[in-house]
Amino acid sequence: MQILVFSDSHSVIVPMERTVRTLCPDLILHLGDYAVDAKVIADTFPHIPLRMVRGNCDMGSRVPELENFIVSDRRIIMAHGHRYNVKIDYTALYNMGRLAGADLLLFGHTHIPHYERADNMHVLNPGPANTGYGLIQITGGEIHCRLISL
């Protein structure tokens, strides 16, 4: 399972479209701030499942703020991050992920790409979509994450 992760697209759609065309992922995730951009990607690539959460710039959107789901037997939690004060530190976000049993915790908001292993949890922020994305491979239960710069 190859998962493509975008965040903070802020109306910059072309790099996302190019990346999706190049990689043909199994799943696309958008971590908020311009969820309408994720809808454009979903409409452009209707054959690829897409999940999204809303960010602080998605006021009035009916998109959920948090997603918690299973892919290839791994629990994925998506949040934009603003509700967890990630611009200050990651403590609240990590605690939420741990309590929810996340194997993979995804967030945006800071516009700073970040990846680390925290205990048994993979934590990834792809940074803004105009400068890069996250790429996740889940094979045989193993999770491999990469940050890709454009």
Strand order in the largest sheet: 3-2-1-9-10
Largest beta sheet, briefly? 5 strands, mixed
Q: Which range best describes the helical content: under 10%, 10-25%, 25-40%, 40-55%, 55-70% or over 70%?
A: 10-25%
Compute the separation of the termini in Å: 22 Å
Sheet/helix structural class: alpha/beta
Low-confidence stretches: none
CATH class: Alpha Beta
Q: Number of helix segments? A: 3
- Kindly report the average pLDDT value: 97
> Which second-level CATH architecture applies?
4-Layer Sandwich
CATH homologous superfamily heading: Metallo-dependent phosphatases
Q: Count the strands?
A: 10
Radius of gyration: 14 Å
Percent in strands = 35-45%
- Principal-axis shape: globular
Please provide the ordered H/E string of secondary-structure elements.
EHEHEEEHEEEEE
Task: Say what the CATH topology is.
Answer: Purple Acid Phosphatase, chain A, domain 2
Our count of domains comes out at: 1
Structure description:
This protein is of the alpha/beta class and 150 residues long. The protein has a single domain (2-149), classed as Metallo-dependent phosphatases (Purple Acid Phosphatase, chain A, domain 2). It has three helices and ten strands. The chain has helices spanning 14-23, 35-44, 91-100; strands spanning 2-6, 27-30, 50-52, 66-71, 74-79, 104-106, 114-118, 121-125, 132-139, 142-149. The strands form two sheets. The protein has a five-stranded mixed sheet with strand order 3-2-1-9-10, covered by helices on one side. It has a five-stranded mixed sheet with strand order 4-5-6-8-7, covered by helices on one side. The longest helix is centred in the first third of the chain and has 10 residues, at 14-23. The two termini are 22 Å apart. The mean pLDDT is 97.
